[in-house]
Structure formats: C-alpha cells, structure tokens
C-alpha cells in the first residue's frame, strides 16, 4: 500500500514545512498524542526543502506554514505537485488568506495558537479523506470525459414523427442538430430518411451511405421502443483513402522503381513477409511475384551487403521509423546491384502499423560514379604527395572491388619483358593471387603463354566468361584451385600508354560468377584503365624529374645532393661498424684543352666515358658522383689505410691507362684525386669535401695521381688576408650592387632587375664573387652584408619608381641568412626604410635553403606574409622536390643556366628538361624565369617552350646603378601593358 492509500487511522506520515523549530515540534507532539498509530514526522525549514522531500517520498499530509524564509505558503502551493493532503497553518486569522489557500489546493486551514491535539488529529483525518475524495471524483470525471470524448460517431434518438429526442456532442458538432428540433430538411432528402421510415414501419436494422455534398456518412438505424436510434459515422476520409489507394495501385503497377509491400511484423528473424511486388521489382531483381510472395525481402541480401547499413535499417524498423539507405542487393542470378531503399510504415485507421512500403531505385551507376570520383581524388592526392606506387594502385584495386562486388582485382606493371604484381585486393586468397597466372608474382612475357601475355601482346581485353568451361585450357591443378575459391570468370584488360607506344601493364579481375562485363561495367573498366595509365605516366614523369634532380644528366651518376646523402649515411654506418671512410674529389687534368680543341660535345663524351670506367673500377660499396664540370666525388669505405691507398691508386691507373675515343680520335686523359679520411680529418661532409679539394689541388701541383689531405695545408696566408679584408669591406663602403635586367618573354620589355653583390677591393680591384661569397658565408659575414644588400636594393628600386613605375628588384638570400630568426624583421625594416611596396621585392632562394635549414618553410611563410614575392633559384640543380613546390608560398622559379647552355649542346634532351620544368611550374601556378641566355637561339627556344621571363648577357649585363639607369632604364622598350598595371602580377617576384 503506497502513502496515498493508507487508512486514515493507520500509520501517519506527515511533512511539516515550517521555519520555526518550536512550532514544528509542538505540532509533531500534538499529532503523536492524538494519533492512535505510529506517526512519522519530517520537518523542512524551507519551501524548497519541502518540495524536494515531496519528490523523494510523498507523505499523507503536509502542515504548511504561510510565512517561509524563501517563499510564501501560496507560492509553495503553486509549485506543489498535488500528491497528498495539505493543511495551511498560519499565525494570522485572515479569512481571505484561508480562501486563497483552499483555492490554491489546500484541504484545510488552521491558525497557530488555537490548535489542540484532538482538533489537529481530526483535521488531519478530514483533510486526508477530503484529498482522497477529491482525487476519486477527479479521476471519475476524467474517465467519463475520456469515454465521452472517444465517441466520434453522431448518435440520434428519433420519435415516431422523426423528431429529435436525443443528440450527442458529436451530432451537435458534426451535423448542427439541436434537441427537440425535427429532422433537418437536408437529412430528409438523403437515403437516411428512407431507412428511418423503413425501421419505423417494422423493418430490421438498416445501413445506408449518404452525402451532404461535402462529406460522406455511413448510417446505421436501429429500432427502439417508441422510435429509432441512428448512429452516423463520417467516412469521408475512408472513401478518399480508398480512392487514393486505387490511384496508388495504378501508379505502382506502372512505376519504374521497385515497390514492395510487406507485413509489419516480425522485424527480427525470419523477417517480414512480402505481400505485394510490382512489375518493376521483377525487372530489377529477376524475382517473379511467386518467387518472393510470402518470403522476406532479406532474400535480396548477399555476401557483400553492407552490414552496418542493414543494422541501421533493422533499428529503424524496430522503432517504426522511416528508412533511407543505399544498399548492395543481389538479383536472382547473383548479380550485385546498388539500390536506394526507402521504407515507411503504414498504419490502419486505428493508428496500428500493419505494413511496410518499400521503394527501391537502382543507383548502381551513381554509386560507381561516386566511387570512381573518390578514387580519382585519392589517386591524384597520393600522387601529388609522393606516396608509393603500391599504395596508389591499392586504391585502384579497392575501387574495382567496391564497384564490381564479387570481383577481386590485381594490377600487373610491366618492366621490360616481365610483369610484376604490384597491387591486389585484400580478400583475394594468397594462393590464388600467386598461382592463377601459373607463374607466381611475375609473368615472363617471353614464355608467350597465359591470358595476361595475350592481353599485353594484342593490346586488347581478354575476357574468359567461365573458367570452368570445358573449352578453357587451365594450368595443372588450377581447376581444383578455382573451384575451392569459387572463382568462375577472368577479365584481363591491358593498360596502353597514352601515345599507344606500348602496354604498361594489365588489370586483371577474377569473379565469383560466370559472365562477361556488361556495357556499364565495360565503361567503368575503361575509366579505371584511363585513370591508371594517367597515374603511371605521371609517376614516370615525376621519377624522371626526380632523377634529373638527383642524378647528373650527362653521366647518369648521382649529383651533389644525392652524393651528400650517401656520404652522410656512409659516415653514420662507419661510426657504428668501426670502418673508416675516404672522401675523394677527382678532377681531370687538361680537360679544358679537350673542350677547346674538340668541342663541348667531345668533352661531354669524355666525361661519360670516364664516369663509366670509374664506376666499373670501383667496388659495389663505393659511391661515385659527378659534382659538375670535370669533377667527380667518391665515398670509399676502408679498414687498412695503406692497402686502401695502394688499391685505389692501382685502380685509377687502370682507368686512365688506355686512351678514350672521342670525336673519332684517341685521347689520353689523366686525373688528380684528393682524399680526406674520416674520422681522422673530421666527420662533417662539407669539411671533408673541402679538405679533399685542398688535397686534390695539392696532387695537381705535385703532378701526382693521388694525395691524402695534410692538415698543415689549410694554413693559406692569402685566404687569411682576404678574410681580414672582407671584415673591413662593409664599414669601408667597398661593397656595391650591380643590376641586371629581367625581361618579359615575347615583348622583351623590362619588368625587373636583379641586384648582384660586388666587392671593389682598394688594392685588388673587383674581387670575383666566387672568391668572397663562400668566404662570407663561412665566416658569417654574409648576415650583415645580406642585410645591407636588402636595404640598398630596396632604396635603389624605390628611387627608380619615378622613372620606371612598377619595376621590381630581385635579391638573393643565402642559407646562412635563413638561420637568423629575425630575417623577416630585417626584410620588413628594409621595406619600411625605403618605402618600396612589398610586392616589388622578390627574394630568390636556392634549393639548399630548403634542404639545409630546418625552419625554412616557417620563415618563408613569414616572408610571404609581408607581401614580398619568393622565387626558387637554380631550379633543377638540387633535389627539386615536388613536395616543397606544392607546399611553400613560392611565386616562381629560375631554370638553372646549365640547362640553357645544354640547349646548344644536346638540344633534344635539354629542350625536354626545360619543357618539363615549365609545364610543372605552370601547373603549380608558378612563373618561370630562364637565366644565362647568351645566344639568340637559346632565347627563341625558351620562348617557344613557354618561359615567362628572360635574363642573360645577351639581353643585359650587370651594371652599376648609374650605368644601369643611363643605359637600361632610359632605353628600355615600353611594354604594351604599362608597368604600373602589372604591379599585382607575378612579375619575377
């Protein structure tokens, strides 16, 4: 028995809400005196406390004080949930307050000081009984109101004269009838009047339908003593629903989308039963009505249906919620297809859900297109970010398996006469992946057997609809292998190069059912082939470009960047293994004589032959690279120095013993090799190379083949003197800037000038930059000198704006400057001091900055934020990584002059390199400047290849500022577009 059902004279549970502990104790004592049973009293000093306790355990009665610290008793009653009797208690004898309390829900009212135990006990019993009676009455009223409100039909009682003796609320509301009136004229004109007359005449119950012109009613007329009773039901909605269903059925029969109606239960195993399918369902799935009626729609699911999506469908069905999902279904023949599935529950007139209506639209083409677009984005992103070929091809295999469920894909890439398995879908069994070609993970095209060979040789698709057909020749044991793994079909599609020159590989798919690809699947395969070929050709182009960046284009040997990587690795390995490493610098003697007498092509041929002989003479563990010109570098691990030196000297003598045949002539060549030994002479690569260089020149001077570095040779008085002079050059104003023009390709109008540092020594005159720039970087003087160059170049460019508005200035930054954290502040200060707009300053950096400075990217972003333009100098001579071209805020790049010189020596290869760089730069929205132009032919070629800007001695030599102003600015041809209008463009900035 809960609290509200306790007998009035049983146990008593009272809550006293009163902030006076004395009053609460008095009332509690009175109750215990007056009540015959056990009394449980709880006290709440605050209204909020009382309301909280009511939520925990409602009492039988609440004694409520009017004046509470946090609210009044009336405010308490306003928040009171009405779960028990309430007696209002106050020290005031206010009748108006008593009335308000009773109106607010209290059952009684007491005045403090006038209460006796007997009165209090009696009042509590009376209040509890009153509360229970009020609650019972309220519940009865609510139940009666619910019953009455649930009667939607109009009920009429008619006398013998058809007068209205009784009408219910629905009759008054729906028909506008009033008790005592005769039957309205409009009702007398309906079949209802005839039915009433018939029953009054002695007929049995009558049922008729009629309309008032707007609504339809179903009427049942029953005889009763002294008249009839008529019950009228509004059936307008049902009639409209029947008509709607008739129309819907006609639409469903002719609909293109599949429609399925199933019973609403059960939603669990074995699933709802199908009661209707339209013709489109049969066309889509192959299931005739007799195949599916009485069965569950889950018949359409298969091995690769999306389990999470099916779980979502079942959760929604269980909760009677609509479903909208894309699912993989299977036809009667086992062919997978995607549908957009829409399911809604259908209720009867009572609101009870009885059926599910499912509309299924075939979206196979759209899903495949979406998968293809997503794969294309992934492939392009992976390609741009330098992911491995296998990773990218895995995306393609995944696309095929997702788009063609039941098929496992493999991709084979050709290398010469061999095909290598480079990617496969994960669910393809390993033994099948390896064995179905009969040759493991490679296919030897020379064996001329198998479907893959046939596809490569013919360049056409090879489709085997049924591998288990009797006329299909199989390798031994292959029949059992295919049967065990359920493989029935094999589709092999070649990957032809875009120019049709060769087949790059094949895509091969094994299917779990027999059949050839239909038109849609064939179109998908064509798009996948096109995507894969594009991928392979882009990767090949990138590999060639990276090879140009890491390998010497003339000899095929590693260049400086790759050599330094190998050297660093060798020094690390030697430190762990206890070996020593010799760093060698080899220079050909009298090589210039070969170039001058036989020509540059002969010199190139000699370098290629020397490189080939050196590579053949060295051990596999030795590293050989070409640094440029006629210099080769070596990394030679060894353990015993004496044996090593004699061995390398012997091999070098063999290299140069026989003459080289160059330009049809026999040419004897010799070389000088300098060696620095690690760890004896140091561990830093650049230090060792510098020491090897010193040793090599020592060998040349001594006429020896080989010389090991002697630390005493580092003491060069001339170099020490030059360094001392360089420290005084800046404060003594011996440094100056020369300016060389940069011209727009095609129009040849002047758009920029490059500031070049020169040192006018008081004794030596002009010192070559090659002599002092490296010294400035080594000593750190390049930092203050570089800051001066920035200030002076910006000042001069700002001064020239009046004469040549929009003329920008290019300034070279060294790697050493990038080590300074305040480089952006130095640039900003130069701009602020000169007033030169930031877009008119271009900062040129070399690739060594990006490779050698850890925070170069952060500094470049900070410089770009200033508004200056950034350009990559000497592109192609370093690593030339696509990643930093893509990531860094660069505006342009310069093609190194070595490629321009090669235009006259090896036009085909050099033109291809320049073309590739221009195409790459433009694809990344970078402009291209070609420097080192000294011949008309070179300018014509680079303009034809798309270079944006030109620079070189043929157009303008570097000049001091006054001479540049007089000879270049005053005679510059005005461009068709004014320079002022081009300040927002990427003029080499």
Query: Any guess at the CATH architecture of the largest domain?
Result: Alpha-Beta Barrel
With strands numbered from the N-terminus, the spatial order across the biggest sheet is: 29-30-32-33-34-35-36-37
Silhouette: elongated
Spatial gap, N to C terminus: 91 Å
- Number of helical regions: 35
Whole-number average pLDDT? 83
> Which CATH top level class of the largest domain fits?
Alpha Beta
Number of spatially distinct domains: 6
Strand content: 15-25%
Q: How many strand elements?
A: 38
Largest sheet: 8 strands, mixed, barrel
Structural Rg? 49 Å
Please provide a brief summary of the model.
Residues 321-375 form the PAC domain. By secondary structure, this protein is an alpha/beta fold.
């Amino acid at each position: 028995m809960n609290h509200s059902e306790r007998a009035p004279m049983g146990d008593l549970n009272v809550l006293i809400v009163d902030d006076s502990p004395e009053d609460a104790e008095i009332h509690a004592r009175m109750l215990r005196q007056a009540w015959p049973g056990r009394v449980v009293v709880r006290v709440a000093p605050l209204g909020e406390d009382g309301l909280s306790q009511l939520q925990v355990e409602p009492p039988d009665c609440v004694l409520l004080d009017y004046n509470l610290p946090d609210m009044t008793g009336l405010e308490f009653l306003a928040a009171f949930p009405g779960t028990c009797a309430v007696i209002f208690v106050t020290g005031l004898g206010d009748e108006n307050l008593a009335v308000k309390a009773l109106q607010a829900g209290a059952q009684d009212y007491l005045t403090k000081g006038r209460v006796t135990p007997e009165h209090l006990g009696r009042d509590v019993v009376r209040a509890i009984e009153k509360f229970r009676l009020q609650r019972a009455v309220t519940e009865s009223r609510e139940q009666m109101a619910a019953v009455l409100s649930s009667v939607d039909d109009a009920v009429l009682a008619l006398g013998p004269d058809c007068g209205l003796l009784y009408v219910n609320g629905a009759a008054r509301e729906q028909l506008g009838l009033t008790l005592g009136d005769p039957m309205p004229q409009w009702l007398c004109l309906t079949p209802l009047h005839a039915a009433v007359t018939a029953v009054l005449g002695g007929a049995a119950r009558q049922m008729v339908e009629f309309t008032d012109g707007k609504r339809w009613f179903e009427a049942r007329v029953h005889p009763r003593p002294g008249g009839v009773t008529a019950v009228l039901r509004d059936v307008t909605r049902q009639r409209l629903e029947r008509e709607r269903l008739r129309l819907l059925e006609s639409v469903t029969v002719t609909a293109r989308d599949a429609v399925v109606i199933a019973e609403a239960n059960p939603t669990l195993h074995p699933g709802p039963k199908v009661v209707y399918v339209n013709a489109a369902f049969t066309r889509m799935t192959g299931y005739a009505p007799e195949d599916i009626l009485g069965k569950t729609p889950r018949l359409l699911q298969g091995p690769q249906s999306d389990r999470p999506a099916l779980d979502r469908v079942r959760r929604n069905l269980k909760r009677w919620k609509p479903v909208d999902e894309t699912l993989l279904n299977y036809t009667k023949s086992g062919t997978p297809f995607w549908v957009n599935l829409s399911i809604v529950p259908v209720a009867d007139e009572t609101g009870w859900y009885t059926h599910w209506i499912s509309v299924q639209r075939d979206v196979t083409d759209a899903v495949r297109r979406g998968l293809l677009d997503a794969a294309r984005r992934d492939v392009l992103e992976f390609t741009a970010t330098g992911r491995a070929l296998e990773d990218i091809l895995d995306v393609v295999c995944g696309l095929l398996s997702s788009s063609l469920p039941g098929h496992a894909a493999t991709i084979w890439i050709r290398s010469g006469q061999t095909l290598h398995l480079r990617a496969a879908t994960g669910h393809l069994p390993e033994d099948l992946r390896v064995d179905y070609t009969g040759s493991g993970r490679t296919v030897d095209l020379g064996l001329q057997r198998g479907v893959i060979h046939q596809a490569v040789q013919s360049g056409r698709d090879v489709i085997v609809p049924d591998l288990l057909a009797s006329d299909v020749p199989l390798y031994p044991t292959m029949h059992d292998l295919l049967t065990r793994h359920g493989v029935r079909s094999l589709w092999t599609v070649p990957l032809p190069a875009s120019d049709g020159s060769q087949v790059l590989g094949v895509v091969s798919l094994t299917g779990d059912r027999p059949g050839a690809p239909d038109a849609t699947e064939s179109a998908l395969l064509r798009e996948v082939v096109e995507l894969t070929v594009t991928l392979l050709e882009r990767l090949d182009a990138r590999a060639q470009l990276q090879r140009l960046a890491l390998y010497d284009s003339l000899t095929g040997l590693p260049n400086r960047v790759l050599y330094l990587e190998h050297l660093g690795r060798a020094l690390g390995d030697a430190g762990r293994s206890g070996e020593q490493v010799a760093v060698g610098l080899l220079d050909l003697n009298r090589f210039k004589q070969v170039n001058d007498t036989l020509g540059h092509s002969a010199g190139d041929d000699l370098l290629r032959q020397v490189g080939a002989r050196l590579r053949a003479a060295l051990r596999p563990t030795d590293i050989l690279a070409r640094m440029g010109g006629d210099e080769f570098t070596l990394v030679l691990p060894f353990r015993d120095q004496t044996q090593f030196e004699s061995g390398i000297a012997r091999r070098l003598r063999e290299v140069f013993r026989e003459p080289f045949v160059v330009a049809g002539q026999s040419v004897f060549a010799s070389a000088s090799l300098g060696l620095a030994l690690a760890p004896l002479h140091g561990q830093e690569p650049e230090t060792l190379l510098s020491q090897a260089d010193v040793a090599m020149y020592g060998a040349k001077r001594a006429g020896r083949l080989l010389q090991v570095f002697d630390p005493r040779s580092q003491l060069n008085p001339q170099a020490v003197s030059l360094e001392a002079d360089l420290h005084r050059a800046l404060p003594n104003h011996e440094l100056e800037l020369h300016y060389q023009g940069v011209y727009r390709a095609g129009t040849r109008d002047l758009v920029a000038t490059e500031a070049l540092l020169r040192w006018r020594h008081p004794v030596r005159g002009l010192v070559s930059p090659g002599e002092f720039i490296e010294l400035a970087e080594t000593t750190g003087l390049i930092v203050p000198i570089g800051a001066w160059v920035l200030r002076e170049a910006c000042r001069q460019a700002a001064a020239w704006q009046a004469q040549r508005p929009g003329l920008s200035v290019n300034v070279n930054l060294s790697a050493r400057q990038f080590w300074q954290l305040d480089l952006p502040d130095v640039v900003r200060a130069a701009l602020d001091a000169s007033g030169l707009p930031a877009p008119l300053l271009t900062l040129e950096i070399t690739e060594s900055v990006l490779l050698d400075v850890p925070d170069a990217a952060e500094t470049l972003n900070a410089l770009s934020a200033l508004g200056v333009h950034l350009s990559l100098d000497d592109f192609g001579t370093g690593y030339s990584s696509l990643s930093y071209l893509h990531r860094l805020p660069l505006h342009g790049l310069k093609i190194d002059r070595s490629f321009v010189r090669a235009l006259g020596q090896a036009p085909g290869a050099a033109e291809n390199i320049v073309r590739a760089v221009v195409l790459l730069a433009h694809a990344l929205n970078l402009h291209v400047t070609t420097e080192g132009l000294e011949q008309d032919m070179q300018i014509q070629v680079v303009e034809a290849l798309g270079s944006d800007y030109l620079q070189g001695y043929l157009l303008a030599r570097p000049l001091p500022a006054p001479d540049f102003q007089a000879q270049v600015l005053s005679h510059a041809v005005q461009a068709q577009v004014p320079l002022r209008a081009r300040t927002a463009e990427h003029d080499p900035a």
